[in-house]
Automatic annotation (TrEMBL):
The Filamentation induced by cAMP protein Fic-like C-terminal domain, residue ranges: 463-514
PANTHER family for this protein: GLPR-RELATED TRANSCRIPTIONAL REPRESSOR, SCHLAFEN ALBA-2 DOMAIN-CONTAINING PROTEIN
Pfam families per UniProt: Fic-like_C, HATPase_c_4, SLFN_AlbA_2
Identification of the protein by name: Divergent AAA domain protein
Domain Schlafen AlbA-2, first and last residues per copy: 43-160
InterPro entries: Fic-like_C, RecG_C_sf, Schlafen_AlbA_2_dom, Schlafen_AlbA_2_dom_sf
Domain of life: Bacteria
């Protein structure tokens, strides 16, 4: 789409007015040249041009809603589409359009006030009216009813799904929920081993020794996870609670870490070589996740086992910052689960919950506004994260240290930080992970899981067999409990695979040995 640039030296007259008395985001003034460049740009994620003469376009409110619900953007009136090209047509009555637009924003049409800034351009005898719509802190923004909630997707406006609307309502409690006190809770709901372990770390690494207190009860109150009556807040319970109580108050609580021996799940010969077991609370998740991350990056020799070293600027510390950032910003009440995907060429931190500000602004703040301030504080108190900002400056050091990119993505429901690894070592990492997985699996499970029946099944399934054939071969009855005990674990760990994976319960379903299963079988035979 091209727009002819006429009279580049033509003086431009800009009339600017601010229509909201509230503090508006700092928006850079858009010059005439920038306006023309934006129209010529293919990607219009934060820019929408519309034709208008004396009346506002009927679909303008969809764009207002979309910009307010995402990262904000410009609505420009007086631009006409002619085929695949756009040209300046101007508006006839800018003052009326301005009053109609702002009057509607002030009216009851929208559920919340919408912050807007306007600019008037005079170009080649035409008047072009532009409005900047700020990203709203009170999402979702809709007109007339919640079904008229829109989001920006690429260069268009799309009606938000129910899941996206729910995520926006979750975000209304951003920075508040983790501090909410559970009045029917008490300190007995904490896992004693977990809170004791954290307190020991605190003694060694915290710059705030005055918070140690006389005992665990005193300690919990001083670090802000319990009130004076011993009632816990959400953040404290999720960090240190017993599993049954964490899931009682936060039924969707769960995180994941998966190591995949390939650049994608499709490329990998097995679905994964490691998957983290479910843990009781966030501190337990952190302990296991950080150890897995340490295995995939270069770590200076001066670091201790937990990676606690103030001077360390290694790859490991950057990934640790990303992990703490994920825990500080994840949405525990979302049905989407936060997960770390470790591929051979990258590490992805996929998080439930979008960032509170546009990605372009994340590195510009010296303050932090985490979704879960209590959780962020817990890690900050033991020097596990940056004390100011979002840690994005540190994460951006990844390219300086490794020569590889780090990328950030965010939408209403999710956010992803990706650290790219050396691609020339990807195949080696895949081979090492798979071979290490098999040897570790055998050494860890040969005594209590890999039974004589296991070896029989692997050998028998060199050619595909049905469930009934396998159980009959073992001399077992055709019962679900026998399937779950002897066959299902081999499938879940990638030693057997389905011949009809798209229809798991097909009556023609059979099980066959995978390459990983063959390696396990060979290893077992050698042990005899």
């Amino acid at each position: 789409m091209k727009l002819e640039k006429k009279n580049k030296n033509l003086q431009i007259s800009i009339i600017m007015s601010i229509f909201a008395k509230r503090n508006h985001q700092n928006i850079k003034i858009m010059t005439k040249e920038e306006l023309i460049d934006r129209i010529n740009d293919i990607e219009w994620e934060d820019f929408e041009a519309k034709e208008a003469k004396s009346e506002l376009p009927k679909n303008i409110w969809e764009t207002v809603s979309a910009f307010a619900n995402t990262s904000g953007g410009w609505i420009v009136l007086g631009i006409k589409q002619n085929g695949k090209k756009f040209e300046i047509s101007g508006v006839d009555n800018a003052e009326k359009l301005e009053q109609d637009f702002l009057g509607t924003l002030r009216s009851q049409k929208f559920n919340e006030p919408v912050d807007a800034k306007s600019m008037l351009y005079h170009i080649d005898g035409h008047r072009v009216l532009a409005f900047h719509i700020a990203s709203s802190p009170h999402k979702p923004i809709y007109y007339n009813n919640p079904q008229n909630t829109f989001i920006r997707f690429g260069s268009g406006d799309q009606r938000a799904t129910n899941g996206e609307i729910t995520a926006m309502f979750h975000n209304q409690s951003f920075g508040i929920k983790s501090e909410q006190i559970l009045l029917d809770s008490n300190l007995s709901m904490l896992n004693e081993d977990t809170i004791r372990d954290y307190r020991n770390y605190f003694k060694l690494y915290s710059p705030r020794p005055n918070l140690i207190g006389n005992d665990i009860t005193d300690f919990c109150k001083r670090i802000g996870i319990a009130d004076n009556e011993g009632h816990l807040n959400y953040g404290g319970l999720m960090c240190f609670g017993k599993e049954e109580w964490v899931r009682h108050y936060v039924p969707t609580f769960w995180m994941d870490l998966v190591e995949i021996p390939g650049r994608s799940v499709r490329e990998a010969r097995t679905r994964y070589t490691y998957r983290i077991p479910e843990q009781e609370n966030l501190w337990e998740y952190f302990q296991i996740m950080i150890r897995r991350l340490r295995l995939i990056v270069d770590t200076p020799f001066m670091m201790n086992d937990e990676g606690f070293n103030v001077e360390d600027r290694s790859q490991f510390k950057i990934l640790r910052e990303a992990l703490v950032n994920m825990l500080s910003h994840f949405d525990p009440f979302s049905t989407i689960h936060s997960c770390i995907h470790i591929y051979t060429d990258r590490v992805e931190f996929f998080n439930a919950g979008g960032y509170p500000v546009p990605i372009s602004q994340l590195g510009n703040h010296l303050y932090s506004n985490p979704r879960n301030p209590i959780i962020a504080k817990i890690f900050r108190l033991v020097n596990l994260s940056e004390t100011i900002g979002y840690g994005f400056d540190m994460m951006n050091e990844w390219k300086e240290i490794t020569g590889n990119d780090v990328t950030f993505e965010s939408d209403i429901c999710t956010s992803t930080v990706t650290f790219w690894l050396d691609s020339d070592k990807a195949s080696d990492r895949a081979t090492n992970r798979e071979s290490n997985y098999v040897s570790n699996y055998v050494s860890n499970h040969v005594s209590n899981y890999v039974t004589e029946n296991t070896q029989k099944i692997l050998d028998y399934c060199l050619t595909p067999k049905t469930r009934r054939e396998i159980l009959t071969f073992l001399g077992l009855t055709f019962q679900t409990k026998n399937y779950k005990m002897h066959i299902e674990p081999l499938v879940s760990h990638g030693f057997l695979e389905l011949t009809i994976p798209e229809i798991p319960k097909s009556r023609f379903q059979k099980f066959k040995l995978t390459d990983k299963g063959k390696k396990l079988l060979i290893t077992l035979l050698k042990k005899k």
